[in-house]
Amino acid sequence: MNVLFEEDGAFRAGSVLADNVSSLQIELASGKRSKVKAANVLLRFAAPGPGELLERAEAEAEGAGGAGEVEDHRLDVFAAPPDFGDAPDFEEAPGYPTLPSHDGAAHVLTPDSPRLGIARDGEAFPHVDAAAVGDDVTPGTPVPESASGNDEDGVLLVGRLSPGGDATIRLIATIPKGGTARVDGWVDWNADFDWDDAGEQVANRVEVTHGTNFFTINVPSTAVLGFTYARVRISQNGGLTPRGTVEGGEVEDYNLSVYPPFDCVITSVSPIGNQLLISWRGEAVLQQGPTLHGPWEDVPGQIPGNTFVPLEGPARFFRLLCP
What we know:
Blueprint: E1 2-7, E2 10-19, E3 23-28, E4 33-37, E5 41-45, H1 50-61, E6 83-84, E7 106-108, E8 115-116, E9 121-122, H2 134-137, E10 141-142, E11 155-158, E12 166-174, E13 180-187, E14 201-209, E15 211-218, E16 226-235, E17 245-247, E18 250-258, E19 265-272, E20 275-281, E21 285-289, E22 297-298, E23 306-310, E24 317-321
Parallel strand pairs: 7-17
Antiparallel strand pairs: 1-2, 1-5, 2-3, 3-4, 6-7, 8-12, 9-10, 11-12, 12-15, 13-14, 13-16, 16-18, 19-20, 20-23, 21-22, 21-24
């Protein structure tokens, strides 16, 4: 009887001199004898001889087997379908780290781990989509706490993104065990289909509690206008990157738009004596009201760009009526 086995990172073959169940005494073609653990034995065979087997294997590895092709592929085996992102990424046109072959973000679903929003589902393979809505419209395998198909329900942008400005993010977290969880997030500000550039991580281990949370992100002045993508991941301890597999938590990808800055905005409010000097940018009309809900009326006597209003007047709230 002969065996093929692994030793010190190399494949070797030899004849069995003694089989002690947990280990074998092997004689190599060179005459050298070696003790081999049974767990390292890959194949037992009667023919061909050990030396011939290795010669054939080496010849095949060098292409001597004739015309044809060889391909190697990574396989990921999960106990149950995990949660993947859906930002655009394709084998023929790699984009964001979404596909398993590109070390895409994946969360092995556990019922008691934190999640974004209420719903969460698992997929056998990422539903990548050019608009990052594949996971929204393609129902996956629900985990025990939710049977919803659309699981992209955790993050909402309040307002809009403009270069040099701030934006408020509303995030709903479900934390079954109570306490807190951590959120990591990224926005592709230069729209180059990755989240690896400086300033693109907008949330780094941000602590969130069960329910509704708010935090502010800064939009760099160099942000490219137009369509882009964001990825948000929640986990117990945080510190994640945009790629890789972790146990528990959830990942959600979103499409976003970066708009030009507002040309209609109040730029300053300065008290001068018993008046306020209010200045603004853009073609707009300044209005005043006694309450936050009005009733609103135009401030009398204003000139384009600035005006004075009395501190002791009935108006306590001001707004710009932009074209």
